[in-house]
């Protein structure tokens, strides 16, 4: 499945992915955000597991399996556009704000607002059809208070 998804993501004109593949694309995008600052912290990984568990109603083992698959795909994927396209095709606009919130949760999970993660989020939001203002509001909603 992993090789098949990678093949479909890397073709010049990828076809829309099914829901399970879109779920894997979202998990891989969460990993990409966490790795953007070259420090994939345990707090970021734990946050991704929590997001996957809550968003998809998965138990700990299934969340871990999905995350492990996503880590492999993220490491091998050539660019971020493939992930965002898969998500945009499979996720209704209203739910994409939740995707942006999840991405911000991961970016802020280690307690640092990093320039590389910020830049990636500024690039990804419009690819998902979410403007800068909506992304900024999403960040404010999930940022730790205080």
TrEMBL record:
Domain Co-chaperone DjlA N-terminal: 23-140
CDD domains in UniProt: terB_like_2
Gene3D superfamilies assigned: TerB-like
Transmembrane segments: none
Stated name of the protein: TerB family tellurite resistance protein
Lineage: Bacteria, Pseudomonadati, Pseudomonadota, Alphaproteobacteria, Rhodobacterales
């Amino acid at each position: 499945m992993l090789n098949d998804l990678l093949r479909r993501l890397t073709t010049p004109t990828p076809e829309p992915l099914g829901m399970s593949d879109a779920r894997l694309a979202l998990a891989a995008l969460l990993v990409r955000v966490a790795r953007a600052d070259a420090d994939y912290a345990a707090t970021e990984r734990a946050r991704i597991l929590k997001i996957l568990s809550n968003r998809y109603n998965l138990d700990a083992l299934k969340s871990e399996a999905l995350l492990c698959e996503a880590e492999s795909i993220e490491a091998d994927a050539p660019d971020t556009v493939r992930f965002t396209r898969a998500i945009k095709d499979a996720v209704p606009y209203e739910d994409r704000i939740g995707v942006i919130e999840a991405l911000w949760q991961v970016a802020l999970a280690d307690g640092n607002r990093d320039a590389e993660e910020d830049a990636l989020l500024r690039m990804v939001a419009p690819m998902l059809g979410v403007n800068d203002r909506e992304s900024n509001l999403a960040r404010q909603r999930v940022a730790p208070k205080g």
